[in-house]
Specification:
731 residues; alpha/beta; seven-stranded mixed beta sheet; four-stranded mixed beta sheet; cell membrane; Extracellular solute-binding protein; transmembrane
Length: 731
């Protein structure tokens, strides 16, 4: 008996299904979404502020912690689709970019009285006369003082550099090669990284003199030459630096140190009489376009910027409030030091062009400090790179030719399918194959979604240009610009052809060493008379088991010119034999930087070839080797005439895989040398990454690089097979 469609059972099931479908939407309708990038104490303080808000207003708030590196990209992917946060906390320097992408709305309605915020913080979140965020806190670098090494703080930077300290102790530690770390010194000479009109400001006499001054400090040994944030923290924490320029993030690392320290404003540069003015970052609660329309979201932003919330964050997380009605706690001299410095700081520019200054400035500073170029030459090159990245994308092209070609291709495919369908034998074969197709249908769908769809989308993206969400069709213009080196010399550093040559050299050297070392170790470990074979195999496979980025960072530390393990070995040799070998500046020349990358990648790659060799050797019949020995073949002849030919079919796919992996080995190149010197050791995949994520998010241009990489790998890996088939076809 068939049940009627309108039966009570069907109605009840349909009602439950409808409620289940609407439940998430109903739950979200009364729920606010707040995104942040806080961790540890800052995250805990934010949770308490939100819990107080929920208890007072009854509004539920969904908190989501997002990594700072991917914060902007996630906003771009979600807010335009209505799936992002109602309120999010981020740095003010991204406001210009967020406004261009329509990710943020006016926040004036969420402000308290304007006079309760510091003038700097309010100016930082104001553009075109509109306030785009509720200022929460301010962060800048300041001067950390090791009171155990110095009794008083000199007023000038020159006096700090001239301090007489114990051997091995630097007067000052700061990130000399970082563009961000150089900005306070640049400001003391009257320069700036970005001009007010959005052009590259890191040029001219002020910028040149600031770089020359930084080089003088490094040459005198007053500051470490190759210092990053981790090294600065380590030097100051271990008492090997009397002063350090760093931010609030260093405070947590000093909890267990055995000396007294304090925070004071940065000194004056005596040559100019001006103070070092660091860039000021203002963190603000910003509203998405959909959040602006919600009174509850405005109330949440107002609560985040309230005096109570500011006091809580200062007390629990040690973040400096920008409210003038919230004083620094009397028992917090560290916050008082940062407050004094913040009053002398200059808000970071929120112009979207600011992000494009970091890479050119970073490379220029490195070249000057390493003595590879004078300041004027390095800064002129940096200005050219900035202009190259900022130049307008290609003009829009008509998609008609591409659509015609696509339509013609689809017609040919349809014509072929119709011909096959009209063939009785083909129809009969299709019927017989239907059961097999049903078995593999799910695999075809999965592979299609995970492999072919991304490939097609990536290939299509290469035909577009413009900012994300505003792209337009340009045809093959991206490929034309890549293959013509953007109008510059074809073999200039950073051009496609130069990077291609480096990539081929990188791949060839690594694969040869992987195969040679792996084959040699496999042959040794396969000998049955070798003792402790199992132990050796486990030890030699460890480099392959450790994540590649961990290994890359460890090797980068070993190659550090001043504090690396290799330099320690050189000093040990000098002490032992009385020699005077100088430490190697590994990343200042192409040969040594390339060698450092290769050494790291060989360490990572030889275990794979060793394992493949061991597996292939187990398939070599012992009776064949014994027969060759009986016939008088030497050990070398047995290896070259019997063993190697028999394991070649197993090694060939491994070599192909190794070549593909090495060709795209992003981690080692990016983390060890970082492309140094001056981008000369970058390979194609790292160059594509830079165009996608550090150079104005030019995804179409980066996708064109990816398509070229795919085509190169397809041709080079399939070419031997195609060539092998030709003699067979000729016969």
């Amino acid at each position: 008996m068939r049940q009627r469609t309108g039966s009570p059972g069907h109605v009840l099931c349909a009602a439950f299904a409808l409620l289940a479908a609407l439940a998430p939407a109903l739950a979200r309708a009364d729920e606010l979404r707040l995104w942040h990038a806080y961790r540890d104490a800052e995250a805990a303080a934010l949770v308490e502020v939100v819990e107080r808000f929920s208890a007072t207003t009854g509004h539920r708030v969904e908190l989501l912690a997002v990594a700072h590196e991917s914060f902007a990209s996630k906003l771009v992917a979600t807010i335009p689709r209505g799936q992002g946060p109602d309120v999010f906390i981020d740095s003010h320097e991204r406001l210009g970019d967020y406004r261009q992408r329509a990710l943020v709305g006016p926040a004036t309605a969420a402000l308290d009285a304007p006079d309760v915020y510091s003038a700097q913080s309010l100016a930082a979140v104001t553009q075109d006369g509109v306030v785009w965020g509720v200022p929460l806190s301010a962060k800048s670098v300041a001067l950390f003082v090791n009171a155990g090494l110095v009794g008083h703080v000199p007023k000038t930077l020159e006096e700090i550099a001239a301090l007489s300290l114990p051997a091995g102790v630097y007067p000052l530690a700061y990130e000399a090669q970082s563009a961000y770390g150089h900005m306070p010194l640049l400001a003391a000479f009257g320069g700036r990284m970005l001009a007010e009109d959005g052009s590259f400001g890191f040029v001219g006499p002020a910028a040149e003199r600031s770089l020359a001054f930084a080089r003088e400090l490094a040459e005198r040994g007053a500051v470490p030459r190759d210092a990053d944030g981790a090294l600065v923290a380590d030097l100051f924490r271990s008492g090997r630096a009397a002063f350090a320029i760093s931010g609030p993030w260093l405070v947590g690392d000093l909890a267990q140190v055995g000396f007294a320290w304090r925070v004071v404003p940065l000194p004056i540069v005596a040559e100019t009489g001006l103070p070092m003015r660091p860039p000021l970052t203002v963190e603000a609660a910003m509203l998405s376009p959909q959040g602006v329309e919600k009174p509850a979201a405005l109330a949440l932003a107002r609560a985040l910027g309230s005096a109570d919330a500011a006091e809580l964050r200062q007390r629990q997380a040690g973040t400096l409030s920008v409210r003038t009605d919230v004083p620094v706690p009397e028992d917090s001299p560290v916050l008082a030091g940062f407050r004094a410095q913040a009053e002398l700081a200059e808000p970071m520019s929120a112009d979207p062009a600011m992000r494009s200054t970091w890479e050119p400035a970073f490379r220029a500073i490195r070249k000057v400090l390493r003595g590879q170029a004078d300041p004027a030459e390095a800064l002129a090159e940096a200005a050219h790179r900035f202009a190259d990245v900022r130049r307008p994308p290609p003009a829009a092209a008509s998609p008609t030719p591409a659509l015609l070609l696509l339509g013609l291709g689809l017609l040919l495919v349809a014509f072929h399918l119709v011909r096959r369908a009209r063939d009785p034998d083909a129809r009969q074969a299709l019927r017989r194959s239907l059961p097999a197709y049903r078995y593999v249908a799910h695999s075809v769908v999965v592979v299609g979604l995970l492999v072919f769809v991304p490939l097609i989308v990536g290939a299509a993206t290469s035909l577009f240009a413009g900012r994300p969400g505003e792209g337009y069709y340009v045809g093959l213009a991206n490929f034309f610009e890549i293959l013509t080196a953007r109008g510059g010399p074809l073999l200039a550093t950073g051009s496609f052809w130069f990077v291609l040559l480096v990539t081929f050299l990188w791949t060839a050297v690594n694969v040869v060493l992987h195969l040679g070392i792996g084959l040699a170790l496999g042959l040794v470990l396969s000998r049955p008379t070798l003792r402790l074979r199992a132990l050796y195999r486990v030890l030699l496979i460890i480099p392959w088991a450790v994540p590649s980025y961990v290994t890359a960072l460890a090797w980068k530390g070993m190659f550090h010119q001043q504090f690396g393990a290799v330099t320690g070995l050189i000093h040990a040799v000098n002490d032992l034999f009385g020699t005077s070998i100088e430490p190697i500046a590994w990343f200042s020349r192409f040969a040594t930087a390339f060698a450092a990358n290769v050494a790291t990648n060989v360490w990572l790659g030889f275990p794979f070839m060793m394992v493949v060799t061991l597996g292939a050797l187990t398939a070599v019949p012992t009776d064949v080797l014994e027969a060759a020995e009986v016939d008088g073949a030497s050990r070398w002849q047995r290896l070259t005439r019997v063993t190697l030919p028999m394991i070649r079919p197993a090694l060939a796919p491994a070599v192909t895989l190794g070549a593909i992996w090495t060709f795209n080995m992003f981690n080692v190149v990016f983390l060890v040398s970082g492309g140094d010197p001056d981008g000369a050791t970058d390979i194609l995949v790292s160059e594509a990454y830079r165009w996608a994520f550090t150079r104005e998010a030019q995804y179409g241009y980066a996708a064109a690089y990816a398509v070229l990489i795919f085509l190169l790998l397809l041709v080079t890996t399939r070419l031997p097979a195609w060539l092998a088939r030709r003699p067979e076809a000729a016969r």
